[in-house]
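User: Structure please.
Assistant: Input sequence and predicted structure:
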Amino acid sequence: MGRQQQNTVQRHSVVFKRLILSLAMLLSACVTINIYFPAAAAEKAADKVIDEVWQLPASSTAPTPPATTQDPVSPSVQEIKP
């Protein structure tokens, strides 16, 4: 093997080693962080939000359906007043 071929092989070997090292460093740098929320706490928080959204005024005990005089076949947009 000639001197020039030997230098080329050595250069390829160095490039290959650097490539392998770079890939190893890249793979080791990939980190995943998983955060798990307790299901009971999440459900309790969701129930609290739902209760706040659906909370009725203190003066009324039960919701009363709005009085409608519309034809049930033709839907229309109604304004709902609290």
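The chain has two helices and no strands.
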